[in-house]
């Protein structure tokens, strides 16, 4: 048996995966140390490993596969999910991982893996033949990105994402909004989609539903807006006609 070739079948593996080939944990530990010394495998973090490609010398596992193996409930979300869905023209070195179990932020192979508390387990796709990748679907990715706009993505990235979407499932959006039960999220989603979205699949009923849930609170759309105008319909201060943001870059069409 060639242990390295056996382990190549798993992009990311643990000591338990190796232990199935041995009679005791000490033999497993010795095998892991030997393979690391031979530079055939790399330790990602405690009890998490990946093989090293003989062709490239790089880790076999992608950052998406690693993220989904950090905990049993882990899945990629926010702008990492946007990247996975192929809807970002930038590569980010922060990997956002939602999980029911907390983990400490860590770095591996140039990427920083960041913990996000998982609020629900709906809207998660288990991608077939992907080596274990779990990712939020398009609608959940959009909702999470808007919800945490000031913490993670930023208003410009969110607007660019919205403008790249071609179709949305209204029923899914309504379901996820109900689960989050967040007035401000209804406000932001209603305004942003009404203003920037060109996707099919949304009816007037969606915007009417959002309006019914916004309450009486007046808010700023984003902390990045320092000069704007008040939108009476959505009860928010939004970017004015010149789209004044802190970095001075316009994200809205003229």
Overview of this protein structure:
With 254 residues, the protein is an alpha+beta fold. The protein has two domains: 3-51, Arc Repressor Mutant, subunit A; 64-107 and 115-215, no CATH class. The protein has helices spanning 3-7, 15-19, 25-37, 63-67, 78-84, 138-147, 155-164, 170-180, 183-196, 204-212; strands spanning 41-45, 48-51, 75-76, 94-99, 106-108, 111-117, 124-126, 134-136, 219-220, 228-231, 236-239. The protein has a four-stranded mixed sheet. A hairpin with a 7-residue loop joins strand 7 (124-126) and strand 8 (134-136). Helix 5 (78-84) packs antiparallel against helix 6. The chain is elongated, with a radius of gyration of 22 Å.
Which secondary structure elements does this structure contain, and how are they paired or packed?
Blueprint: H1 3-7, H2 15-19, H3 25-37, E1 41-45, E2 48-51, H4 63-67, E3 75-76, H5 78-84, E4 94-99, E5 106-108, E6 111-117, E7 124-126, E8 134-136, H6 138-147, H7 155-164, H8 170-180, H9 183-196, H10 204-212, E9 219-220, E10 228-231, E11 236-239
Parallel strand pairs: 4-6, 9-11
Antiparallel strand pairs: 1-2, 3-4, 5-6, 7-8, 10-11
Helix pairs in contact: 5-6, 9-10
């Amino acid at each position: 048996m060639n242990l390295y070739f056996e382990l190549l079948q798993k992009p990311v593996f643990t000591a338990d995966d190796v232990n199935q080939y041995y009679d005791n944990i000490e033999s497993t530990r010795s095998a892991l140390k030997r393979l690391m010394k031979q530079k055939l495998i790399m330790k990602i973090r405690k009890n998490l490993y990946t093989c090293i490609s003989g062709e490239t010398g790089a880790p076999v596992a992608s950052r998406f596969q690693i993220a989904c193996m950090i905990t049993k409930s882990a899945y990629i979300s926010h702008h990492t999910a946007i990247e996975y869905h192929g809807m970002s023209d930038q590569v980010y070195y922060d990997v956002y991982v939602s999980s029911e179990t907390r983990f400490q932020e860590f770095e591996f192979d140039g990427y920083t893996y960041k913990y996000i508390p998982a609020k629900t387990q709906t809207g998660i796709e288990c991608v077939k033949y992907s080596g274990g990748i779990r990712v939020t679907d398009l609608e959940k990715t959009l909702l999470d990105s808007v919800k945490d706009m000031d913490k993670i993505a930023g208003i410009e990235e969110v607007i660019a994402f919205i403008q790249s979407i071609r179709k949305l499932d209204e029923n899914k959006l309504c379901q996820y909004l109900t689960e989050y039960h967040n007035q401000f999220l209804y406000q932001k989603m209603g305004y942003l989609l009404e203003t920037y979205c060109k996707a099919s699949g949304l009816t007037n009923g969606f915007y009417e539903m959002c309006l019914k849930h916004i309450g009486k609170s007046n808010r700023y759309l984003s902390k990045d807006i320092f000069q704007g105008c008040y939108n009476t319909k959505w009860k928010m201060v939004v970017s004015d006609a010149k789209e004044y943001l802190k970095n001075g870059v316009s994200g809205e069409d003229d």
